[in-house]
Amino acid sequence: MTLSIKPVIYTLLLLLLTMMIFETTSLDVVVQNALYNFSEKHWVLILDKTSIAHLVFYDGVKASLVLFALTILILLLFFRNKTWVKVRFTGLMVVFLSLVFIPLAVAFAKDISNVACPYQLTNYGGNVPYVVVFEAYPEGVKPTQAQRCFPAAHASGGFALVSLFFLARTRKGRIQAIGCALTIGWLMGGYKMLIGHHFLSHTLVSMIFSWLMAYSIALLLNSERLTRIRSFIPSLRYSTHENNETHGS
Q: S-S: 118 plus which of 14, 125, 196, 208, CB 3.0-4.6 Å?
């Protein structure tokens, strides 16, 4: 697959545009207000870690993604000489690295963003004032602990599946891969919005960022220089093995 740097630039611009829109409008609050019952003071879904919804859209899908990543790792380590794996090796690498590094990158962004979750805000019965990503907390009401809610880390695991685009070998397969990833990512992110754990922008930014990272990983792994290095390593091993046999005889 021939990849260009242009989609990285376009996606980065889209990410910046998306953040600017939510920074300068009250769209997040408008959407979240529709998900909160102000008279009864609760969200559309009440967080219950023993519920079927939490099992399916949080614990279950999270465990499934971990299992999927481990399955790919096993294929890469122990079945790399099998024809099916060999012809898809780079694609499998893109998927595995995306499943690992996209959630890690989003978690790092959460650590430094200092943005609160909806349920923590004074708008919805909490004690933290609402501020956007690049806005400072007002003096005297700054939370004592760092807030960790932007972007949406849980949904990023599902959105990381956009990397399946680079494993698919047909146009139809790539469309299905994107559709699958967006469906899973928005089900995960939507659930967190319905229980007041994320704003729309948190999930939307996570989605765009996931594609940016997945494409960047694919671009790196498909770069001409890296391809040369990968093709050089087996020939180097063969040459070393041949020299050892010559000296041994």
A: 196
CA distance 195 to 119: 8
Do residues 205 and 215 make contact, with C-beta atoms less than 8 angstroms apart? no
Q: List the domain range (segments joined by +) for residue 68.
A: 6-134+146-227
Q: Is the sign of the CA dihedral 12, 187, 160, 170 positive or negative?
A: negative
pLDDT in tens, 117-168: 999 999 999 999 999 999 989 888 888 888 999 999 999 999 999 999 999 9
Question: DSSP letters of 159-208?
Answer: HGGGGGGGT--SHHHHHHHHHHHHHHHHHHHHHHHHTTS--HHHHHHHHH
Distance CA 140, CA 89 (A): 55
Q: How many domains does the chain have?
A: 1
Residue 248: inside a domain, yes or no? no
pTM over 0.85: yes
State residue 128 phi and psi, 5-degree precision: -110, 130
Is 232 a domain residue?
no
What residue type is 161 in one-letter code?
A: L
Q: For residue 98, is it within any domain?
A: yes
- Under 8 Å between Cβ of 25 and 34: no
Nearest residue to 200 via CA among 135, 143, 132, 142: 132
Q: Which residues of the chain have a pLDDT value below 70?
A: 224-249
